[in-house]
Amino acid sequence: MLDPTRRYELAVRPLGRTVADEYFHNGTTWIEGREGSTYTIDIRNNTPNRVLFVVSVDGLDVLEGKPA
Q1: Cβ atoms of residues 60 and 53 within 8 Å
Q2: Model pLDDT for residues 16-44, shown as the tens digit of each residue
Q3: Dihedral through CA 47, CA 52, CA 58, CA 62, nearest 10?
Q4: Helix, strand, coil proportions of the chain in percent (round to 5)?
Q5: What is the spatial distance between Cα 66 and Cα 68, in angstroms, rounded to a whole number?
Q6: Which of 31, 49, 50, 51 is nearest to 41 (CA)?
Q7: Is there a contact between 45 and 64 (Cβ–Cβ < 8 Å)?
Q8: Which of 52, 53, 44, 42 is nearest to 12 (CA)?
């Protein structure tokens, strides 16, 4: 997944597989997730600036499981 300016990249990989397929609907990018599966989220900042990413899945912080 790229932002339109290509400054940031995000990839979701199911454990042991390549990047998950992306689906586009109504201007939003979706990735199929399966209950009980483990995923890796790779984020790349292609700018010289520091940035903050808040990553959540279904509204929950991916690190602590609390509301994002």
Answers
A1: no
A2: 888 888 888 898 888 888 888 888 888 99
A3: 110
A4: 0, 40, 60
A5: 6
A6: 31
A7: no
A8: 42
The amino acid at 27: G
Would you state the structure tokens that stand for residue 61, as one six-digit string? 């912080």
Mean pLDDT of 42-53: 92
> Residue 47: what pLDDT?
93
DSSP state of 2: B
Residue 21 in contact with residue 27, Cβ under 8 Å?
no
Residue 2: per-residue pLDDT: 60
- Residue 20, amino acid: A
